[in-house]
Every structure is written in structure tokens, then in C-alpha cells.
């Protein structure tokens, strides 16, 4: 546990001790398990991955680059969770998943689904723009049994393309518009590896408060997302890298893994978890975390 995280815990722990319904959220790119990573191969670090997740004990966990056997392993090691995810290639078992997990005892599942980051999001395995690979998002609508407010939570997890600039920008627009439809009447939590820096167009498309619905469109206006990390650390600072390349202590680089929220949610803490062991990290990305609290809905400014 790093120093920054300890300080954040000290700040919020008085509130956490008396408020039982705070939400602990983690986003974690696991690195696909068949990669030829030598000493960092999945079989050599999978216990470390499960332990890292267990230490933070998220209520909601979004994973990226998750193959079926990796999802199965985490199901075995984290029995308190229910998971869902499908392969991006065929909607079954083939290809990486944007698998997500939620604590079974805490949440009641109301609905679930998947869509593809393309011009035909309902078409399984579809690909568009300049995307180099098939990309997708998985979602679940949940009722928090411990929540004080009668608002469901829409939890979305995604992974943007690592090469296609247009694809990332269009994916951000699609995510925002789709969340507006799926998340009507909900608070929204979005996790993902966005393969984009915070000064990029995809970031602007996701978080820009001036975005309006397309002229003549009957679709809902885009929901206003908040970057949880930037809410805690308002100014862009050095040392915000979330890609480690399996090397402990890497801080230089871009913050490409984000947790975003929309609706009546306050951000109590946000962190880049730089857990390491013997000079290595559990994956080639650092997990990112946030502690959230549902609140009365704040009115959004007109667009």
C-alpha cells in the first residue's frame, strides 16, 4: 500500500467508519493470459492479481483483457462476487472480455448486457472506424441492497482500441450516448482502459460538459461524467502513469485507465494502486480505485 493511498485512507476513514454504503470501485487491466510474458506470465502472477484485488476488496470491479480462464480463476479465488463477460469476437468464449464483477450479497442484478464499440453496437463482433481490433463494453444494472437512495447503479466496463485514434474518439461518444439511454434514472459508474491520455480528444468527448445531443436527434442528452481521479487531484500532475510494463515504481507516462461517474455520486477518494512485489507489479497496468458515495441527485446544467 503506497503512501498516497494511506493518506487518503486517513482522510476518509472517519466517514467510512460510520457510513456503510460507500462504494469501493476498481478498474484493472489484467493483461491477457496467453501473452508470452516470460517471468510475468499469467500463471506466475495470477495469485498476486487475486491478492491485490482482495486487499482493496472492491464492491465493483471492472477488468480488461480478460480471457475466459482468467475470469474463471478470479471466480474461484473471489467467491463473494458474481461475474459477467463475453468474448469480444463472438459474444461467447472467443476473445478478450470486458468482464466485470460485483459483490453478490450487496447487489441485486436488475439487467445486464453488452455492446460493441462500432457503428453497429448491437452486432456481435462488429468493428468500425480505424479500430485495429474488435472492442466492446459490458454492463449491469444493479440495486444496492445497502443503499440509502432508491436509484439503481448502471455499471459499465470497457476497453478502447490501442491504435485507432478515430475509434477511440467515436467510442467515447458512443459510450456517453449509450450510457444516457441505459442509465436513465440511474447513477452511472464507468471503468475502463481507454488507451488515451487526459489531454486527448477521447477524454474531452467523455468529460466535456458542453457536449450537446446531435441536432434533430430524439436521443437523450449526453450524461455529464466526472473523472474521479481529477476530482480528488484537480490539477494534472507528473507521476500519474497507469501503465507499468510490469515494473515497480514506474510513474512517468499517461493516465489511461479511468473511473468515471455520473448522477448523484460524490467522490471520497481516488488512487493509482502501485502495489508491487520483488520489483514487479501484478499486471502491466496499475489498477485504479475510487471510493464513492451515492447522494441526493444534483441537477445538471441545461445544455
Observed structural traits:
disordered N terminus; Deoxyribonuclease I, Chain A; 6 helices; six-stranded mixed β-sheet
Describe the fold and architecture.
The chain has 303 residues and is of the alpha+beta class. It is 23% helix and 25% strand. The protein has six helices and twelve strands. Strands 3-4-2-1-12-11 form a six-stranded mixed beta sheet. It has a six-stranded mixed beta sheet with strand order 5-6-7-8-10-9. The longest helix has 18 residues, at 165-182. The protein starts with a helix and ends in a 9-residue tail after the last strand. Residues 1-18 have low confidence and may be disordered. It comes from Aporhodopirellula rubra. Keywords: Endonuclease, Exonuclease, Hydrolase, Nuclease.
Low-confidence stretches: 1-18
- Count of DSSP E strands? 12
The name of the CATH topology is Deoxyribonuclease I, Chain A
Helix content: 10-25%
Number of domains: 1
Supply the helix-strand structural class: alpha+beta
Which outline best applies?
globular
CATH class: Alpha Beta
The named CATH superfamily: Endonuclease/exonuclease/phosphatase
Strand content: 25-35%
Report the end-to-end length measured between terminal Cα atoms.
42 Å
Total of DSSP H or I helical runs spanning 4+ residues? 6
GO molecular function: 3'-5'-RNA exonuclease activity; endonuclease activity
InterPro entries: CCR4/nocturin_mRNA_transcr, Endo/exonu/phosph_ase_sf, Endo/exonuclease/phosphatase
Protein name: Endonuclease/exonuclease/phosphatase family metal-dependent hydrolase
Domain Endonuclease/exonuclease/phosphatase: 26-285
Amino acid at each position: 500500500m503506497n503512501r498516497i493511498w494511506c493518506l487518503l485512507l486517513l482522510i476518509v476513514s472517519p466517514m467510512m467508519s460510520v457510513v456503510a454504503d460507500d462504494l469501493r470501485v476498481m478498474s484493472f487491466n489484467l493483461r491477457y493470459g496467453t501473452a508470452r510474458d516470460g517471468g510475468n506470465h499469467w500463471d506466475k502472477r495470477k495469485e498476486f492479481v487475486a491478492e491485490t484485488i482482495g486487499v482493496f476488496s472492491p464492491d465493483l470491479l471492472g477488468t480488461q483483457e480478460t480471457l475466459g480462464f482468467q475470469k474463471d480463476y478470479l471466480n474461484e479465488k473471489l467467491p463473494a462476487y458474481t461475474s459477467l463477460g463475453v468474448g469480444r469476437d463472438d459474444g461467447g468464449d472467443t476473445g478478450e472480455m470486458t468482464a466485470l464483477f460485483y459483490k453478490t450479497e450487496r447487489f441485486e442484478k436488475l439487467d445486464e448486457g453488452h455492446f460493441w464499440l462500432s457503428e453497429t453496437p448491437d452486432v456481435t463482433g462488429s468493428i468500425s472506424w480505424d479500430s485495429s481490433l474488435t472492442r466492446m463494453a459490458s454492463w449491469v444494472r444493479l440495486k444496492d441492497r445497502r443503499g440509502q437512495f432508491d436509484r439503481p447503479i448502471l455499471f459499465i466496463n470497457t476497453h478502447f482500441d490501442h491504435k485507432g485514434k478515430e475509434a477511440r474518439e467515436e467510442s467515447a461518444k458512443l459510450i456517453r450516448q449509450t450510457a444516457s439511454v441505459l442509465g436513465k434514472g440511474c447513477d452511472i459508474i464507468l471503468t475502463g482502459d481507454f488507451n488515451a491520455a487526459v489531454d486527448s480528444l477521447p477524454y474531452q468527448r467523455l468529460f466535456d460538459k458542453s457536449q450537446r445531443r446531435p441536432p434533430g436527434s430524439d436521443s437523450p442528452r449526453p450524461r455529464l461524467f466526472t473523472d474521479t481521479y481529477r476530482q480528488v487531484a484537480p490539477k494534472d500532475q507528473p507521476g500519474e502513469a497507469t501503465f507499468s510494463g510490469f515494473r515497480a515504481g514506474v510513474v512517468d507516462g499517461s493516465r489511461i485507465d479511468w473511473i468515471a461517474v455520473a448522477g448523484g455520486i460524490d467522490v471520497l477518494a481516488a488512487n493509482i494502486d502501485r502495489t508491487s512485489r520483488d520489483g514487479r507489479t501484478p499486471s502491466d497496468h496499475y489498477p485504479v480505485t475510487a471510493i464513492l458515495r451515492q447522494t441526493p441527485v444534483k441537477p445538471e446544467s441545461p445544455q
